[in-house]
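Technical annex, item 7. During the second reporting period the consortium partners agreed on a shared format for inverse folding records so that results from different sites could be compared directly. Each record opens with the tokenized structure and is followed by the designed sequence. A conforming record, contributed by the partner at site C, is shown below for reference.
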């Protein structure tokens, strides 16, 4: 309860619009929606955006339902629907442009600019984002990788005030590659 209250206060101080405010304006959001810090969901056209169940927006994701590039010359702004399916992860700093449909069971890599539809069960990355693989293959590859890479539980996160010694131990364990944390 307090964590949500603090998160709402922080977002207001940064000038962000809360998810509840966007939903009141017409944004459609499914169950288990996670919107991390500094995400921008198009306030002026949020009712054109639908987000499914089990969706996570990593920090600084932008979802736009309008494109004002035509406003100065044509006196009109382009608008379009944005649909994000179920079981989707959108990586930090990604931008979802108007008219995009992201399927179910999709991972969008950090920093991607999604300009076209992404089908179900795909891993997409880049600017512009393009499909580079299958979600299940990507997850299976990482699951196998976990068999021989360091795995850290939640005690190793900043949420639990990780000690300086543990931080250094984590750095040492990760010197030769990746690891995984809960």
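Designed sequence (site C submission):
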């Amino acid at each position: 309860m307090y964590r949500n209250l603090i998160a709402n206060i922080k977002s207001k101080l940064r000038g962000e619009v809360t998810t509840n405010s966007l939903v009141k304006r017409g944004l459609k959001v499914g169950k288990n929606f996670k919107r991390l810090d500094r995400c921008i969901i198009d306030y002026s056209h949020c009712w054109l955006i639908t987000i499914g169940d089990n969706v996570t927006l990593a920090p600084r994701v932008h979802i736009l339902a309008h494109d004002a590039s035509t406003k100065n010359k044509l006196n009109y702004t382009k608008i379009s629907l944005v649909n994000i399916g179920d079981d989707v992860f959108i990586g930090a700093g990604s931008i979802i442009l108007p008219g995009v449909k992201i399927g179910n069971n999709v991972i969008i890599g950090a920093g991607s600019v999604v300009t076209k539809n992404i089908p179900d069960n795909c891993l997409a990355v880049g600017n512009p984002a393009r499909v580079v693989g299958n979600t299940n293959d990507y997850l299976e590859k990482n699951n196998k990788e976990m068999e021989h890479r360091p795995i850290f539980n939640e005690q190793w996160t900043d949420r639990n005030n990780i000690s300086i010694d543990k931080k250094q131990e984590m750095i040492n364990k990760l010197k030769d590659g990746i690891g995984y944390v809960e």
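The longest helix spans residues 2-13. The mean pLDDT is 93. All partners now use this format for quarterly exchanges.
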